[in-house]
Amino acid sequence: MVKKSLSNIKKHGRSIILFLIGNIVGSASFLFLYSQKLDSLYLERDAIYYANNQKYKQIRKLEQELAKLSQHRIPSPNREETIKKIIVEVDSTYRFGAEMIKAQVEAMLEPFLDKSMQLISNNPELVESVLQKKPIPIDAEQTQKVQVHVKYLSFYNETLKIWVKAEENTGEDLTNYQK
Predict the structure, then answer these.
(1) Does residue 12 sit in helix, strand or coil?
(2) Where are the bilayer-spanning segments (predicted)?
């Protein structure tokens, strides 16, 4: 059997050698024709991998920065936001009494300092009821008094901002104020 295979190889030796030479020449011509194209494709692949890696690093960095900022801005669940500052804006027909009204309204709302913002935002009528209890004098002799009504409430970074409307106190029941 071995003798038979050796005799076949000798008989077809030229064919085998031509086959091997054809493979070598074909491979060489393929490399000659397409080597530049293959090199450019490999370089493009490497550039895409590098860009993808850089974008991934940038995304991770932005995610970490976002997580850090969200920890600073969003209060923790066990810490409730409280009112640290109250700002009052007065809408009044009295030019000179607006500052006095503002100061007195701020003094009337001092009990809300260090209270939960959630309490006021859920019950804005608390502020209105505090302001309706007592008319505010706008002059030193306390001859002219105004009644104050809440127009708007705003919350921002532990600050409660209130816009109030001051109307002349006529002595009537002002609890049915039309907004």
Answers:
(1) coil
(2) 16-35
